[in-house]
């Protein structure tokens, strides 16, 4: 580009000089041309040489200015590039830092959520286990309560039948009525005795309790009680789950009969011991 500019400048200067010389030659006469030919040629050469030197100097100075300008432009471009690169790096670092913050926050939220979810599931499972345990324990307690209630009912029937048959507790003797009084005394029926005993039940609870306690304090009575429990457990083991109601009643009656038999034997033994 610089060489094209310099060639254009030199061409314009040479054209102007040629025009000037042509005009001078056309205006001057022939004689004057011959007389002035040599000095004009020398001046023309010197002027042309000066013009060439000036053009070369101008071209060199122009080239120097262009080089310095291009260098400054390059340096400015480089500085701008460096600034842009630094700013880009800062932006990238800031973007990476923001991404890091987002990732850290997401991990923290996930950890907290997983902990909360785990605690919630654990509490649900624990509540269900506690409910199942409560149901099982309640079922076991009700089952044992039914057994105890059944045994208490049997013992109550045994005691009532024992008293009804005339074999009293320790120290209790049935007075034999005389022949004259026996005709006047009215025999009570079993159901009448049960009705009377039910009416007198609340009034004689303390008395019966004292009698039972006095009987339980004796070693013979304890042995009888242990025999009753062993017989009851044996009969309970032999009973099946699919027995009918009449079989249960018969087994209960057998238990009651055996208990009465053992109590009668104990009463006889105590009476013999007291007589001796």
Description:
Helix 1 runs antiparallel to helix 2 and helix 6 packs antiparallel against helix 7. It contains 7 helices and no strands. The protein has helices spanning 2-27, 30-164, 179-184, 190-199, 205-216, 219-238, 245-275. Among the domains are: 2-29 and 42-82; 147-169 and 186-275, no CATH class. It has 276 residues and is an all-alpha fold. This is Calmodulin-binding domain-containing protein.
Number of DSSP-assigned strands: 0
Q: Which percent range fits the helix content?
A: over 70%
Radius of gyration: 70 Å
Largest sheet: none
Distance between the termini: 158 Å
Overall mean confidence score, pLDDT: 70
Number of helices: 7
Order of helices and strands, N to C?
HHHHHHH
- Based on secondary structure, the structural category is mainly alpha
Which term fits the overall shape?
rod-shaped
Give the low-confidence spans. Answer: 1-5, 24-31, 179-188
* Strand coverage percent: under 5%
Q: Concise description?
A:
With 276 residues, this protein is mainly α. The protein has helices spanning 2-27, 30-164, 179-184, 190-199, 205-216, 219-238, 245-275.
Task: Present the secondary structure layout.
Elements: H1 2-27, H2 30-164, H3 179-184, H4 190-199, H5 205-216, H6 219-238, H7 245-275
Helix pairs in contact: 1-2, 2-7, 6-7
Task: Output the keywords.
transcription regulation; P-loop_NTPase; mainly alpha; repeat; rod-shaped; Calmodulin-binding domain-containing protein; single chain; 276 residues; disordered N terminus
